[in-house]
């Protein structure tokens, strides 16, 4: 579905978008700082990118719910890029060039690549991110992790792995952090209960906000009355304090042009552009799966938005950005409805730096870990694995392989492995039967008939989705599967999603001999 929300739609959803934006802010704040540290970049650079991603890119984006900012998946590229070019200022020029390249990718309509990611792989990515969030946040929840908040790779900066870190954490529990984490988790779960949701006033206040305020209060009590339980500085948010224009000027760094003749500059820029674009397309496709309204994002517009965002971030001294699935899934889980939630998160990031740094630096990371534990569970519910299993091995095997590959490597490597397995099953399905797809219109042009071929594979998905998205409003559409011996699940799901939302464009949909499937809800 096209992005066609009006100003009244944004205003009508403020009651949900503002609290959701606040929750995303609590998650994004330590992630921005942690990714800066892991990238070997100035601490403030991640905050700059988070602010640009929220305040600017949210409105330019092709997605209503996607949230942009610095990505953990780019830390190695940033670290190596700074080392290759010799300085962070030189690296900023590569970020600006990468943004320009993304802008070009958007104009040449490279965003169509996003339509070719199989649902099984995207769901595998979401489930894997959920598992990683849980496994990675447990050490922070226990107050025992010194790695940056938000690192996602299996092999960690301290030499341990995701699993060995758990063993280490349980032997180094910080009791105060654990108590605060448990209270925060209990508060968030209680706030999400049907009893609380029935209260018109309480449901407007995000449970994460209540949990964070409670965490600050409990730690303040520990500091004054039980100092042995007080959470140490290394397990609190650590924002740079900006008290004036002079401090801001000291924190910001700006690009230099002295590497323009260096071929390595363009290699780094090209690498950033390609990896950031792929991660963005993956994130947007996954966010569309989570969207309760099943809106389809304009991926070409998204690439342009990311391009502009990276150009601005580079000029202001920020890290490269992508659409980030952790922030985006948090946005959906918190009840975000429109771009306003992403914008609000950016505003809160700016306020936290300029007005609230002292208060923000009192937030225990164990409380924020509790927020991500809830988000992680919603992404990787047991029901998701059960549903995928019921779809058959053609869907389940790529799903499981994607989960395991991401869990034991990183996001992009895992996705490539999952895609390879998914493509194997696609090619296997297409080996015996060719496919075709054509559209017929009645003479009066009021009824559009889409007749599916004998074998409709995932390779037809992009063509079918694009055709459905461009059907004229106020029409009567008949999707006929009478001659189809096989219709791939991804295609059935796409047709089902179109059927459920077509009424918003005043399109009447009639399905003939097309199996009805349940569009999975993983909120």
Outline the structure in words.
The chain folds into two domains: 13-369, no CATH class; 437-512, STAS domain (Transcription Regulator spoIIAA). Helix 6 (119-141) packs parallel to helix 7. Helix content is 61%, strand content 6%. The protein has a four-stranded mixed beta sheet with strand order 3-4-6-8, with no helix packed on it. A two-stranded antiparallel sheet has the order 1-2. By secondary structure, the protein is mainly alpha-helical. The chain is built from 22 helices and eight strands. The model has no long low-confidence stretch (mean pLDDT 88). This is SulP family inorganic anion transporter. It comes from Pontibacter locisalis. The chain crosses the membrane at residues 20-37, 43-60, 88-108, 115-135, 173-192, 204-223, 265-286, 307-326, 346-375, 396-427. Residues 437-523 form the STAS domain.
Q: How would you concisely characterize the structure shown here?
A:
The chain is mainly alpha-helical.
Q: Which of globular, elongated, flat, extended, rod-shaped describes the shape?
A: globular
Major sheet summary line: 4 strands, mixed
Order of helices and strands: HHHEHHHHHHHHHHEHHHHHHHEEEHEEHE
* Number of alpha- plus pi-helical segments: 22
Compute the gyration radius: what is it?
24 Å
Uncertain runs: none
The fraction of residues assigned to DSSP E strands is: 5-15%
Q: What number is the mean pLDDT?
A: 88
Helix share bin: 55-70%
Domain count: the total is 2
**Secondary structure: number of strands:** 8
Distance between the termini: 20 Å
Strand line-up across the major sheet: 3-4-6-8
Structural class: mainly alpha
Transmembrane segments: 20-37, 43-60, 88-108, 115-135, 173-192, 204-223, 265-286, 307-326, 346-375, 396-427
Main location: membrane
Organism: Pontibacter locisalis
Domain STAS: 437-523
């Amino acid at each position: 579905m096209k992005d066609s929300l009006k100003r009244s739609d944004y205003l009508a959803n403020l009651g949900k978008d503002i609290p959701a934006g606040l929750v995303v802010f609590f998650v994004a704040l330590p992630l921005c700082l942690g990714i800066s540290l892991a990238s070997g970049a100035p601490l403030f650079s991640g905050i700059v990118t988070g602010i640009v991603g929220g305040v600017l890119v949210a409105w330019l984006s092709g997605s209503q719910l996607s949230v942009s900012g610095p990505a953990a998946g780019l830390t190695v590229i940033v670290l190596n890029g700074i080392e290759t070019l010799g300085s962070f200022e030189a690296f900023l020029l590569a970020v600006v060039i990468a943004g320009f390249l993304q802008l070009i990718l958007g104009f040449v309509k490279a965003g169509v690549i996003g339509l070719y990611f199989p649902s099984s792989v995207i769901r595998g990515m979401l489930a894997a991110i959920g598992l990683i969030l849980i496994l990675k946040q447990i050490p922070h929840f226990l107050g025992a992790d010194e790695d940056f908040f938000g690192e996602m790779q299996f092999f960690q900066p301290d030499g341990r792995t995701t699993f060995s870190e758990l063993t280490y954490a349980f032997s180094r529990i910080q009791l105060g952090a654990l108590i605060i984490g448990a209270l925060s988790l209990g508060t968030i779960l209680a706030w999400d209960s049907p009893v609380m949701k029935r209260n018109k006033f309480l449901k407007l206040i995000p449970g994460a906000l209540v949990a964070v305020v409670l965490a600050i209060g409990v730690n303040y009590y520990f500091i004054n009355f039980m100092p042995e339980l007080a959470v140490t500085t290394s397990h609190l948010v650590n924002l740079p304090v900006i008290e004036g224009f002079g401090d801001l000027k000291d924190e910001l760094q700006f690009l230099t042009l002295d590497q323009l003749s260096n071929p390595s500059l363009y290699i780094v820029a090209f690498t950033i552009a390609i990896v950031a674009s792929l991660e963005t397309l993956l994130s947007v496709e996954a966010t569309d799966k989570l969207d309760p309204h099943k809106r389809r994002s304009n991926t070409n517009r998204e690439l342009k938005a990311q391009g502009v965002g990276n150009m601005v971030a580079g000029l202001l001294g920020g890290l490269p950005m992508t659409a980030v699935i952790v922030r985006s899934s948090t946005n959906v889980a918190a009840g975000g409805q429109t771009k306003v939630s992403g914008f609000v998160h950016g505003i809160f990031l700016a306020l936290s730096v300029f007005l609230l740094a002292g208060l923000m630096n009192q937030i225990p990371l164990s409380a924020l870990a509790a927020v991500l534990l809830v988000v992680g569970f919603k992404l990787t519910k047991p029901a998701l694995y059960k549903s995928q299993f019921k779809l058959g091995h053609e869907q389940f095997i790529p799903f499981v392989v994607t989960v395991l590959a991401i869990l034991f490597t990183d996001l992009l490597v895992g996705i490539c492995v999952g895609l390879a397995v998914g493509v194997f099953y696609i090619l296997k399905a297409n080996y015996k039967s060719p496919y075709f797809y054509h559209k017929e219109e009645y003479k009066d042009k009021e009824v559009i008939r889409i007749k599916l071929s004998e074998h409709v594979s995932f390779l037809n998905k992009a063509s079918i989705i694009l055709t459905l998205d461009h059907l004229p409003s106020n029409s009567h559409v008949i999707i006929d599967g009478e001659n189809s011996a096989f219709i791939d699940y991804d295609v059935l799901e796409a047709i089902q999603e179109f059927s459920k939302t077509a009424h918003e464009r005043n399109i009447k949909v009639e399905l003939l001999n097309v199996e009805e499937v349940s569009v999975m809800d993983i909120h």
